[in-house]
Amino acid sequence: MKENKLYREVVVVADDFTGANDAGVSLALSGKKVSVAFQLPFREATDALIINTDSRALLASDAAKNIAQLGPDIVNARWLVKKIDSTLRGNVGAETKALQVLSNKRQIIFAPAYPAAGRITQQGKCLVNGKPVNETEFASDPKTPVPSANLADLFTDLTGKAITLHTLEAELAQGTELLIVDAATDDDLDAIIAAALTCTQMPLLVGSAGLCDALARHLAPARHKQLLAVVGSMSEVAQHQIALIQKASGVSSVVIDVEDILQGKTTGYLTQIAQALEAGHHCIVHTCPDHNARYQIERLCQRYQLTRAALGETICAFLGELTRHVLDAETPDALYVSGGDVAMAVAKSLEAQGFEITGRIARCVPYGKFLGCAWLRPVMTKAGGFGTAETLLEVLHFIEERLSD
Description:
There is one protein chain. The protein is of the alpha/beta class. The chain has two domains: about 10-220, Rossmann fold (3-Layer(aba) Sandwich); about 225-400, Four-carbon acid sugar kinase, nucleotide binding domain (Molybdenum Cofactor Biosythetic Enzyme, Chain A). It has 14 helices and 18 strands. It has helices at about 15-30, 60-70, 70-75, 90-105, 170-175, 185-195, 210-220, 235-245, 260-265, 265-280, 295-305, 310-330, 340-350, 390-400, and strands at about 10-15, 35, 50, 80-85, 110, 120, 125-130, 130, 160-165, 180, 205, 225-230, 250-255, 280-285, 335-340, 355-360, 365-370, 380. The strands form three sheets. It has an eight-stranded parallel sheet, with helices on both faces. Strand 16 and strand 17 (about 365-370) form a beta hairpin.
């Protein structure tokens, strides 16, 4: 067989198709390219390769032979996972041993818990909704009955040691071959992944979809929450707030030229805002580039034969529609609108029917959510002249540190 030299960040070996999908879905949701292979060798580039050996109901010796054929497709994996059924059905011990031999892994972490499905490990035993698994329906499974809840009973060729999280890192450091780790929560599974990272050689991970989910959480790229701020106010207070926040890292500013609005030259602004958000930045959209801009209003009114009220309505309507188009295309974590007329124009463009107040930030920024429209994420509003120079920065910190998903 020709060797497969493609690098895989993660290789998961599952014993049936649905289990393979369960193992891979959280990795896919974390942004990884995930492929499930029915046949080997698998030549396509992928971040995570999920191999389905379809061996759950085979004799243990035949299942082990299937594992032994996988060499070229697992050799370059940084993370190697033997995905098992959370109720211990199948050939867990035989397949784990075969995969350890094939991969030359010195240590194995065995953590079959799947808390989200009611399956936990306690004192070295598998419990399903609080009962030992051999006292549930899985004990009489038609194809792969489970005779024991004691996890060490699964391994005839490995010496297992049941431990708690408190001693996991110490046991890894001592070189203990098979560690059967209690876990009752997702936080426990996250801690197991963290402990694996302390090893010189990454251990073979053996577990259910719960452990795969924990690995996906570890591998998911860090993402900071994003704010889209639309500031229509030309007050000096608002300008001080914008000037200060522009000095913060991860903040992009898009200045809307009022003359572009009046001349209908507005096509590029949506692209600028989208690029800022897609780059992971907070985006501040405003119409007043400097202190002097507010003194040009009379000139603009005369040039375009508009009253001040009509000019304001035109600007607000544009900002409302621009915000709607941005939110149709992008998903910032929160929306901030400064200036009462602008806030109302945004609400109108989004077809909001009302506003539910939840709380307040920095003493002058009520926040909540629009009612009756498609935008369901938090909305912050502020009168243009309210607050201090730090107000918008405080809103930013609230978004990044305190806003829940």
